[in-house]
Amino acid sequence: MLTLSTTKAAPGMTLALPVMHPDIPGYVLLRPGCVLDAMEIARMAEIGVRRIAIEYPPTRFLLRYASVQLINDQSTVAQRIAAEMDRMSSDLHATFDLQVYADGVRLLVQRLVDDPAAALFMHDIIDARSPLASHAFNVGFLSLLMGLKLDGYLVSHRGAGGRLSRRRAMNIESLGIGALLHDIGLTRVPREEAARLQASHGVTPEGAIDPMWRRHVETGFDMVKGRVPATSSAVVLHHHQRLDGSGFPERVRGFGPPTALRGEEIHTFARIVAVADDFDRLRNPPEAKSVPTVRALHQTLDLVRAGKLDPIVFKALLAVTPAFAPGSVVTLSDGRRCVVTGWDPIHPCSPTVCVLPRSLDEALCHERHAHPARLDEGDVLGEPIDLAERRDLRVAEIDGDNVSGDFFEARRDSEFDLRLQFSTPLGEGWDAIAEATLAAGGKLG
Question: In the chain, helix, strand, coil percent, each to 5?
Fold first, then answer.
């Protein structure tokens, strides 16, 4: 399996995974095994299909990271959310249909449990027409992926002091519902104004954000409170809070001016959704081309290191969002074109790659549709290169984007290690305590 931008597709390529129709829930536009022709390629480009997965015998083993059923379920849920949000935006007095969100979360959770190897954030296979709905789905799906990885963290924080049983602490359905609904308040803003707010927001210093943008969390909270679990409501209200207290909304605390929540005052679910929200906005900036995943991860890490976002949740983001996804075609700093065959969240920018044979390299270099692609059964990939062990090499380009300046590394051994999920307070010294425990052979969360 190779994953390519649709612009790199060529007649003769065979699909390894289904292509879902962007506008019709659950509708398979092209099935696995379909041999592409020029007309089908043009049709995909016309309706907005951005990426495809094609068969390439030497990389067939990468199909373990994919699930046909999960792709179908993602498409179904994304388009149902799109239809629901379009209905809400068209009628400012309409109430949301909780069943759409709850059913979508249950479907995705069950599929992720059934296909754990495919539980990666492959969001750009889904292309909902509405930016608001697409963002809601991306944040919801990514939050569920991270929640499944953060089982120990959820138990230690939500179950501390016996507040919740282990089973209830690990129940992430309310996390998923809150994540899908996190921007529901924007459906109460006229379409043109909502588009302006989204385009001007990005990820900026919280104090500089438009007051109308700040109000969307309280509007959304008023819409959902009493109709969804309290933890879901907390996500809607608090997903723009920051660990350092610079977020919103603010609340009155006795005497003195209102202040925002900070640190562990922020619900764990809201901290998860905050990371997913910022990452997706960085990955898919409004009215602009999507940026490489590695760049969005680096920018999200900058927010973590600035004290804005939860560092443990960021570890989960790295665990489910490869900087360079398996099957991606990349160019190394020495000019060789390779396919990504493995990845390690502890060294996110240094995947394992294999050099592509000359025949495929030449096919990918041709202008679109100029020549039929020949992907031979007898091709042999080069030996695996673990870039974490090759300090002289790094990924320089992916999908035509130069990413040589997007490389980032952990500052401490524990910074990206998800095995370290501690219940100690957020703040300075957390990872130092974790590292000392690990070195002493202590049990990790």
Answer: 50, 10, 40
> How many other C-beta atoms can be found within 10 angstroms of the C-beta atom of residue 132?
22
Distance CA 365, CA 31 (A): 26
Higher pLDDT among residues 422 and 25, named by residue: 25
Contact 351, 340 (CB under 8 A): yes
Q: CB of 128 within 8 A of CB of 22?
A: yes
Which pLDDT tens digit goes with each residue over 337-360? 999 999 999 999 999 999 988 777
C-alpha 264 chain-centroid distance? 24
- Could you tell me the CA-to-CA distances from 43 to 36, 40, 49, 251, 400 in Å, in that order? 11, 5, 9, 51, 22
Of 134, 18, 49, 126, the closest CA to residue 83 belongs to 134
Q: Position of tokens 């992430």?
A: 172
The first and second tokens of residue 186, run together, are 């924007």
Of 32 and 160, the structure prediction assigns the larger pLDDT to: 32
The CA distance from 199 to 279, in Å, is 15
DSSP string covering 78-119, please?
HHHHHHHHHHHHH-TT----HHHHHHHHHHHHHHHHH-GGG-
| pLDDT, tens digit (0-9, with 9 covering 90-100), for 408-421 | 999 988 899 988 76
Q: List, as one string, the DSSP characters of 143-205.
A: HHHHHHHTHHHHHHHHSGGGSS-HHHHT--HHHHHHHHTTTGGGGGS-HHHHHHHHHHHSS--
Rounded to whole angstroms, how far apart are CA atoms 300 and 303?
A: 5
Give the list of residues 6+ apart from residue 24 with CB closer than 8 angstroms, or none: 79
Model confidence, pTM:
0.89
CA 341/CA 319 separation, integer angstroms: 16
> Rounded CA gap, 120 and 145, in Å?
7
Q: Give how far the C-alpha of residue 340 lies from the chain's centroid of Cα atoms, to the nearest Å.
A: 19
DSSP-derived secondary structure letter, 321: S
Q: What are phi and psi of 388, to 5 degrees?
A: -70, -20
What is the C-alpha separation between 394 and 385, in angstroms, rounded?
Answer: 11
Within 265-357, residue ranges assigned H as helices are 268-283, 293-305, 311-320
Q: In what order do the strands lie in the sheet with 385-386?
A: 385-386, 352-355, 337-342, 329-332, 395-398, 401-402
